Amino acid sequence: MSSSPAAPPLPKKSHPRIFRIKKEKERKYLSASNANVSNFVSVRLSGDGNYHLWKTQMLCLLKAHDMRDLVEDSPTPTHSSSKMKEKYDSLLKGWIFGSLSEDVLSIVVDSDSAKCVWTKLESFFGSCKSSDDQGGFRKSNPPVTSAEKEKELSTTKDENTNKTSNSDTNNAGESMDKEAPQTGKKGNL
Question: Is residue 48 part of a domain?
């Protein structure tokens, strides 16, 4: 009986299961890299109160491409190899940069990773800060109903009327026929 020598094990590159997994990851990356980001993210983050809308749209995009783990504090099973993780990270960073106004981009452009960009944007726009703390950007308040707008307008008119009455009383010697600064019309302030 002749015994044939045992066949050497297949190299890892040509192992069918590993090859299939690698191809699947490459296919997913290719799909993500060809995504039309503007179909998911129609809001350009400008720092004037649209952070919540921008973040919501961006998270939908990340979920659709299995990339949320790149910005969240979770393990990264989807992009296990460091090379694939770098590719996805660069792709996501590009998506984020492309959806920012120039002013906002200047805040995060030197960040090393998509996670770092995400964290900076979250800390800058995601928490309640005054406009002074945000470098001139302001976070908008929740939407105001038309009834609240009318009440605010009415209150503002009442306050202006009271200020004018007090001013006219204090300056009794001056003419009350002054030019109104907002309308350019003659009349009481």
Answer: yes
Q: How far is residue 117's CA from residue 39's CA, in Å, rounded to a whole number?
A: 21
Q: Is the dihedral of CA 94, 99, 102, 108 positive or negative?
A: negative
Of the two residues 67 and 132, the one the predictor is more confident about is 67
pLDDT of 51 above 60 = yes
What's the whole-model pTM score?
0.56
Q: Give the N- to C-terminal CA distance of the chain in Å, as an integer.
A: 116
* Whole-angstrom distance, CA of residue 122 vs CA of residue 115: 10
Residue 71 lies in a domain: yes
CB 38 within 8 A of CB 94: no
* The total number of structural domains that make up the chain: 1
Choice between 134 and 114, residue whose per-residue pLDDT is larger: 114
